[in-house]
Amino acid sequence: MIELGQTQNAPAAGDLIKDVSEADFMTEVVEMSQTVPVIVDFWAPWCGPCKTLGPALEAAVTRAKGAVKMAKVNVDENQMIAGQLRVQSIPTVYAFWQGQPVDGFQGAVPPSEIDAFVARVIEAGGGAPDGGLDEALDAADEMLEEGAAADAAQTYAAIAQEDPNNVRAYAGMARAEIALGELDQAEAILNGAPAEIASAPELEAIHAQIALARQAAQLGPVAELRAAVDAAPSDHQARFDLAQALYANAQAEEAVDELLAIFRADREWNDGAAKTQLFTIFEALKPNDPVVLNGRRKLSSMIFA
Fold first, then answer.
1. Is residue 185 annotated as part of the catalytic site, yes or no?
2. Which of 1, 82, 194, 293 is the most buried (most CB within 10 A)?
């Protein structure tokens, strides 16, 4: 946090995010908050942490698609408001609902806490019970897809604190840990899930993903395993190892094809290992994934042929 100081104008904002002054604070914050929660960001142009927090808040508010609005108050130009709300340092953030402050924090915070804060504000404003959390979960999913697994894990964890029975949050935490290579931690998260959600299909799918990741951990490169299969096409163990490596390399369809080839040649090989592995992959993927649908269809046609 930085103590209050000098002057400059705030950047322009859109309908959801507005620059607010003492002249329109009553209209844009107090009156507006009678119908929709309003987050007020007290900032100044010279404040370093404000330059990080402000855009992150704006992004979270934008993702909420109108469930919450944001007012930016330059404390240098609006010292009376800052004084009335006892803003001693910046950045300071307050959330208003029905004319009153209902939540807030000081200082720069990580994205996970911002998303959780916005979710709380939306819920305080009577939004859909899971609406704000869904927005935060969507943001965490996007972080994970973009490779920011550590940030995603923090966001999922913050959501789980807000809603301890949120299946998506627990599944997300575990998936983030898998992406970070922390399989033991991912398994611990699943084992620590509340009893009410422990058997949810989404969490069972993560268990399957962990099992597959553990299997692939000791395997060599796909190219070497492929060469071994090409050299000995009837070596089911070599093909099985290749299938494991393919799945670990995000080639699920190719992995399923190799396992189907084993099942077609010898369905009883290694106590039906190919069929068991196929079902593990099917559990790890989404039920409507084309790989699952096509794989199940091909397997059924072999079983009932």
1. no
2. 82
Check whether 133 has a pLDDT greater than 80: no
* Angle CA 184–186–189, to nearest 5: 110
User: What is the Cα 15 distance to its own chain's centre?
Assistant: 27
Give me the catalytic one of 39, 40, 47, 81: 47
Residue 177 CA neighbour count, 13 Å, CB half: 21
Domains of the chain: 13-125 (3.40.30.10), 136-218 (1.25.40), 222-304 (1.25.40.10)
Residue pLDDT, tens place only, 201-229: 889 899 998 988 888 777 888 999 999 99
The pLDDT of residue 1 is 43
Report field, pTM of the whole predicted structure over 0.90: no
- 219, two tokens: 């395997």
Q: Is 145 exposed, middle or buried (0-12, 13-18, 19+ CB in 10 A)?
A: exposed
Q: Which of 4, 17, 32, 50 is catalytic?
A: 50
